[in-house]
């Protein structure tokens, strides 16, 4: 550490020695940091001229990376002592900015790798990694790192491709999972005056125009990180998806610098109409998949976009979704001509798979044209297509089943499943999933680390200038994969995980739909009951017809099961895919048998219900018959009694007539004389009683007069006394009447 401040020759050798000592030794790293390594390293870098310096700057940055790699404590110490300004200052372009020597390029790459270590925040096993990562990203953006990265990767037209790619990776990692940094990136504007445009628009323009596949993949990562779990950002980008008139200039992407993000994206998608090259279209499709991912509002908005034909007089407008499906078919015919662009179909399929997830409207738009389903079936069964293409086409076909909400004949889930069964059989269809999962792209997706984009730079591993300029991936096709190797970067773990989850849902849903065809008989409990006005015979005939239809459906299910078993048995004889198909057939057989048993059980229950209903009806009918017999018996008894009364009456009348005829005329008493005699006796008795009452009344009146005179003498008001006596008498009379009523 003391020799770092010695003469230049000794200092340089000390740097190399410290670089070797600190590569794996954590204790030595702590000692070096404690001895002030950060201050001495940045002092040497500044003295050597920053990124324009020679190999000594590379050695300093190599030592700095060793001290910061997988060490949160050292990163925190650097952040809280010297800060991040010294390492950010290495990215500043000085002097002739368009001149990038090999050493300057290596120095910039080393500085970008060091910054990326700070962005990632330390070792994966470090418990404080997440908090340290968040703090590092926040401080780096506060120190204007984003401005330097945009200058180096976007505005500088002379930066080498490797530097631009590493710059885009740093930008993507800076905004990944950091809402505030995302907002800052979205607000950045590059250029001045009339040439100014948002930074995201500039990055999109690079994606659509660059000739480097690596630069496209790196810039695509920026949009992936920006849109991941960022619904507001996705909505902001989707709101600009407005089709523009077709350009008249030669390069449709350079005619208007003020074009919105969405308009530029749509123009990039449609660029294949003019030059017949779908390269730009597939790159725009990749960006659109990030904008639509897991955002149903953005998906539905994109479904409403209608694109005009390139020559309006020769074509009709069509929805954006259907235009992309048409480009997928065009890419199939172009693949045989240019095998170097074999990734176009996969990227377009990735967009369609992402778009249709949880979006029944997208499925409906796809099935609106019968040709789409036919083409997709042919693509799945096409032996010349790659494993990845057939697998993704199978996933898209499965999404047309699990997210299909249509009840229209020919467009519902039953129609799609029947088409798959008739075209290739379910076992062959399911085998496409397993072939895809075992392919290089999907098997390596879960194994590769996110940060392992390229080999770290060291003095012994410094690449040549040609290797730095761009990496040729054509030779990577010899690794045993027929798919383009750049797809391993675009098909990230989140997408491959989505495909795996969809695979399980698709298997279960398709087998369920296949084993339960669209019912021809609606089983409604009300239909099992006897209708009003329906006699017993018609009711029984209707139930028999219902049971016959149920039996027909069961026979249909049995026929489907037999066809499926035959398909499984025939495919099981294939030695190449015996293991995978045997597993698929076992699962399907089990599900099929369970569904058949379930159908038979339900039908048996329906028959039992019908038998019970019939027994109840017969019981009620017998009860009504017994009641009718009883009423008839009662009526007969009443009739007999009436007849006997008539006979008795006739007999009595006959006897009366005989009596009258035998005794002669009868003496009729004088009723008026009897009445007069009774009246006289009653009148006599009433007169006697009246005379007795008059005598008593006279005696009482004399007594009243004497009492009145006496009371007057005593000074009593007789009239008032009589009134009081009258009131009391009335009250007593009323109480006696109430008592009588109660009794």
- The helicity comes to 55-70%
Q: Please describe the biggest sheet, giving its number of strands, its sense, and whether it closes into a barrel.
A: 2 strands, antiparallel
Share of β-strand residues: under 5%
Q: In terms of per-residue confidence, which ranges show pLDDT below 50 for 5 or more consecutive residues?
A: 448-453, 469-480, 572-581
Our measurement of the CA-to-CA distance between the termini, rounded to an integer number of angstroms, reads 130 Å
Class inferred from helices and paired strands = mainly alpha
Our count of helices gives: 33
Rough outline: elongated
**Strands in their spatial order, largest beta sheet:** 1-2
Number of strands: 4
Average pLDDT works out at 81
Rg of Cα set: 52 Å
Explain this structure to me?
The chain has about 750 residues and is an all-alpha fold. Helices cover about 70% and strands about 0% of the residues. It has 33 helices and 4 strands. It has helices spanning about 10-20, 25-35, 35-50, 55-70, 70-80, 85-90, 100-120, 130-140, 145-155, 160-175, 180-185, 200-210, 215-225, 230-240, 260-270, 270-275, 280-290, 295-305, 320-335, 345-355, 360-365, 370-380, 385-400, 415-425, 425-435, 440-445, 465-470, 485-490, 495-515, 535-570, 580-665, 670-715, 720-740, and strands at about 190, 195-200, 305, 320. The protein is elongated, with a radius of gyration of 52 Å. The N and C termini lie far apart (about 130 Å).
Give a topology summary.
Layout: H1 8-21, H2 26-34, H3 37-48, H4 55-68, H5 72-80, H6 85-89, H7 102-120, H8 129-142, H9 145-155, H10 161-175, H11 179-187, E1 189-190, E2 197-198, H12 199-209, H13 213-227, H14 231-238, H15 261-269, H16 272-275, H17 279-292, H18 296-303, E3 306-307, E4 318-319, H19 320-335, H20 344-356, H21 360-367, H22 370-381, H23 387-402, H24 413-423, H25 426-437, H26 440-445, H27 465-469, H28 487-490, H29 493-515, H30 536-572, H31 578-663, H32 671-713, H33 718-742
Antiparallel strand pairs: 1-2, 3-4
Helix pairs in contact: 1-4, 3-4, 4-7, 5-8, 7-10, 9-10, 10-13, 12-13, 12-15, 12-17, 13-17, 15-17, 17-20, 19-20, 20-23, 22-23, 22-24, 23-24, 23-25, 23-29, 25-29, 25-31, 30-31
Protein name: Golgin candidate 6-like isoform X2
GO biological process, one term: intracellular protein transport
Organism: Raphanus sativus (Radish)
């Amino acid at each position: 550490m003391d020799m770092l401040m010695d003469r230049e020759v000794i200092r340089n050798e000390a740097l190399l020695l410290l670089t070797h000592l600190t590569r794996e030794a954590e204790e030595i790293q702590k000692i070096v940091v404690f001895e002030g390594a950060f201050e001495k390293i940045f002092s040497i870098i500044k003295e050597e001229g920053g990124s324009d310096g020679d190999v000594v700057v590379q050695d300093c940055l190599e030592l700095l990376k060793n001290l910061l790699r997988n060490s949160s404590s050292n990163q925190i110490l650097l952040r809280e002592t010297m800060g991040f300004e010294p390492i950010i200052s290495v990215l500043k372009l000085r002097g002739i900015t368009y001149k990038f020597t090999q050493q300057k390029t290596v120095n910039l790459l080393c500085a970008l790798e060091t910054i990326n270590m700070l962005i990632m925040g330390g070792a994966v096993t470090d418990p404080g990694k997440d908090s340290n990562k968040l703090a590092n990203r926040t401080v780096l953006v506060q120190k204007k790192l984003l401005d330097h990265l945009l200058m180096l990767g976007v505005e500088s037209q002379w930066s080498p491709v490797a530097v631009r790619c590493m710059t885009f990776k740093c930008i993507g990692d800076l905004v990944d999972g950091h809402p505030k940094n995302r907002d800052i990136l979205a607000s950045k504007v590059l250029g001045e005056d009339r040439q100014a445009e948002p930074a995201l628009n500039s990055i999109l323009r690079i994606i659509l125009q660059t000739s480097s596949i690596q630069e496209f993949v790196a810039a695509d990562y920026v949009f992936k990180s920006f849109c991941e779990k960022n619904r507001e950002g996705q909505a902001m980008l989707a709101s600009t998806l407005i089709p523009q008139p077709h350009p008249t200039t030669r390069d449709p992407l350079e005619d208007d610098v003020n074009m919105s993000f969405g308009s530029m994206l749509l123009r990039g998608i449609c660029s294949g109409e003019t030059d017949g090259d779908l390269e730009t279209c597939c790159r725009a499709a990749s960006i659109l998949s990030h904008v639509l991912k897991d955002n149903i509002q953005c998906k539905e908005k994109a479904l409403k976009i209608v694109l005009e034909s390139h020559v309006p007089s020769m074509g009709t407008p069509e929805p954006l979704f259907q235009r992309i499906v048409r480009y997928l078919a065009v890419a199939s015919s172009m693949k045989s001509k240019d095998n170097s662009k074999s990734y176009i179909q996969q990227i377009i399929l990735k967009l369609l798979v992402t778009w249709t997830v949880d979006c029944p409207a997208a499925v409906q738009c796809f099935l609106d044209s019968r040709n789409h389903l036919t083409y997709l079936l042919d693509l799945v069964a096409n032996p010349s297509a790659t494993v990845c293409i057939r697998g993704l086409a199978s996933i898209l076909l499965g999404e047309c089943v699990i997210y299909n909400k249509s009840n229209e004949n020919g467009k519902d889930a039953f129609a799609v499943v029947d088409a798959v069964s008739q075209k290739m059989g379910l076992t062959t269809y399911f085998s496409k999933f397993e072939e895809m999962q075992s392919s290089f792209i999907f098997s390596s997706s879960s194994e590769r680390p996110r940060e392992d984009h390229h080999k770290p730079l060291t003095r012994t591993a410094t690449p040549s200038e040609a290797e730095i300029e761009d990496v040729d991936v054509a030779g990577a096709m010899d690794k045993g994969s027929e798919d383009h190797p750049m797809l391993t970067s675009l098909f990230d773990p989140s997408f491959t995980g989505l495909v795996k989850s969809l695979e399980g849902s698709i298997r279960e849903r398709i087998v369920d739909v296949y084993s339960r065809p669209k019912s021809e008989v609606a089983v409604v409990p009300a239909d099992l009951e006897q209708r009003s006005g329906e006699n017993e015979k018609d009711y029984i005939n209707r139930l028999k017809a219902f049971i016959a239809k149920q039996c027909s459906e069961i026979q249909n299910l049995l026929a489907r099961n037999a066809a499926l078993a035959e398909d499984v048995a025939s495919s099981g004889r294939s030695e190449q895919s015996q293991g995978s198909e045997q597993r698929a057939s076992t699962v399907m057989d089990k599900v099929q048998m369970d569904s058949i048993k379930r159908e038979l059980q339900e039908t048996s229950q329906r028959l039992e219900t019908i038998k019970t209903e019939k027994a109840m009806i017969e019981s009620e009918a017998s009860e009504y018959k017994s009641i009718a017999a009883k009423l008839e018996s009662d009526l007969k008894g009443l009739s007999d009694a009436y007849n006997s009364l008539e006979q008795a009456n006739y007999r009595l009348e006959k006897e009366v007539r005989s009596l009258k005829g035998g005794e002669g005329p009868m003496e009729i008493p004088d009723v008026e004389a009897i009445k007069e005699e009774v009246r006289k006796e009653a009148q006599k008795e009433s007169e006697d009683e009246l005379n007795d009452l008059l005598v008593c009344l006279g005696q009482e009146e004399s007594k009243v007069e004497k009492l009145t005179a006496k009371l007057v003498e005593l000074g009593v008001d007789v009239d008032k006394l009589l009134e009081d006596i009258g009131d009391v008498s009335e009250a007593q009379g009323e109480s006696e009447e109430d008592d009588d009523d109660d009794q």
